[in-house]
Design a protein that fits this description.
seven-stranded mixed β-sheet, about 375 residues, 13 strands, alpha/beta, six-stranded antiparallel β-sheet
Length: about 375
């Protein structure tokens, strides 16, 4: 057994999201969003080098020694899977291990709104799951892919960097391809996927104009495309897509979004009321004819008000979702306040007054 497994086992037992190892620091666990040190000595360059190299292939060692970072998945039969990033920093090596759940959760396990399942009934178009790093986008996508896999007879191709959750083909055929080992890039993987008779294509990250453009082509030509972006709201997601495209393609991007975007799920992870878990809270956009019209006519600034009044279509703003969960006593009020856009409506629920803005009062 690799010696590093002891730290990984502790991390999984403590239900942390990530394990961090760096020269000059003790191992750290991210628990409920906070970094907590393990009672262990500071890691030396030699010790960390030996721990990490024990799980690397010769090719990975060569890549790291050439100065490049490493991103890959590590699996142990007993401990499960971890997404690994190894890098060099001032002072020596560093590594982070993201803990992958042992089982793919369902949409209901994640507490996601029913409209997310409805979105998956469409035949073609683009559905985006967005949020900052570490907000559970990959897990949400895994639940979506697994639902399709278990309920429809389709060909699903995933492009991931690296592969995290492993799917077992059920009613669908699920083909998983890893960027860097099976395909050179997301863009090249998308080009290849279009020749492989796909029904559903999962793109792990829409990270550049070429990948976005190819994803648009796939969605326009009869495929259901699922992807992620590092944006914090539905509005910012559309802005990011349009801004990413060259000037001569921006109008094309607007037209695509108006006609082929099916929905945006923007999520944050909020501490639960008992401070023992994190709960996904989502802003939801469903591309209705009214929203499509706003996009085409350059009135996207009006979309938030459509989300606010679109509950009958399953839509909601992030603040509405936070307030709904807060009223059900599902989330911590202080954490809800920290993540809210309009913080004023959450101030009355705050239990720690130190997080509220302090007023400077001059007494003469």
């Amino acid at each position: 057994m690799a010696r590093i497994n002891a730290f990984l086992q502790l991390g999984r037992e403590q239900r942390c999201s990530d394990i961090h190892l760096a020269v000059g620091s003790p191992p750290l666990l991210r628990i409920m969003g906070d970094l907590v040190p393990i009672k262990y000595r500071e890691l030396s360059e030699t010790e960390l080098h030996d721990l990490l190299y024990e799980i690397l292939t010769d090719e990975q060692k060569s890549t790291l020694e050439s100065g490049d970072d490493l991103d890959f998945s590590y699996q142990d039969e007993e401990l499960g899977r971890f997404r690994v990033s190894i890098y060099r920093k001032l002072g020596g090596l560093g590594a982070s291990f993201r803990v992958i759940a042992l089982q793919i959760p369902s949409l209901s396990d994640l507490g996601l709104p029913a409209v997310v399942e409805k979105m998956l009934n469409i035949q073609h178009g683009l559905i985006l799951v967005t949020g900052a790093t570490g907000t559970g986008k990959t897990t949400t996508l895994a639940a979506m892919i697994n639902l399709i896999n278990n309920t429809r007879r389709l060909n699903i191709i995933t492009l991931e960097d690296p592969v995290e959750y492993l799917y077992k083909s059920n009613m669908s055929l699920v083909i998983q391809r890893e960027v860097g080992s099976q395909v050179e890039s997301f863009a090249m993987g998308l080009r290849a996927a279009l020749r492989e008779d796909p029904d559903v294509i999962l793109v792990g990250e829409l990270r550049d104009p070429e990948t976005i453009s190819l994803a648009m082509t796939a969605a326009e030509t009869g495929h259901l495309v699922l992807g992620t972006l590092h944006t914090s709201s539905a509005m910012k997601t559309m802005d990011r897509i349009i801004d990413a495209m060259p000037t001569e393609q921006k109008h094309q991007a607007v037209t695509f979004l108006a006609h082929n975007l099916r929905g945006v799920i923007s999520q944050k992870l909020i501490k639960t009321a008992n401070n023992r878990e994190l709960k996904a809270i989502t802003e939801i956009l469903v591309n209705t004819p009214a929203i499509s019209n706003l996009i085409m006519n350059g009135k996207m600034h009006q979309i938030p008000s459509m989300l606010q009044t679109g509950a009958n279509k399953g839509m909601q703003l992030m603040d509405q979702a936070l307030m709904k969960a807060l009223n059900k006593k599902e989330i911590d009020p202080d954490d809800a306040y920290k993540h809210a856009t309009d913080k004023s409506i959450f101030q009355a629920f705050v239990t720690n007054p130190e997080i509220l803005p302090q007023l400077n009062i001059n007494v003469s």
